[in-house]
Design a protein that fits this description.
single chain; mainly beta
Length: 55
């Protein structure tokens, strides 16, 4: 449609996910270890519903 309202466009905004991870592991004959960190950022795909109460 050529004349969609701005409300519809903003409601159906494209979502984005950004994931960053790093890990380090190592060990010897009797022990081993692992350290890992992950960061996830989501934007645009989750809306908070708005409720209006009319008396």
């Amino acid at each position: 449609m050529a004349h969609e309202s701005d409300g519809v466009k903003s409601y159906f905004e494209k979502g984005k996910t950004l994931t960053n991870s790093i890990s380090i592991d190592g060990g010897g004959e009797k022990t081993s270890g692992r350290f890992s960190v992950t960061n996830v950022k989501n934007t645009g795909s989750c809306r908070t519903p708005v409720m209006t109460v009319t008396p």
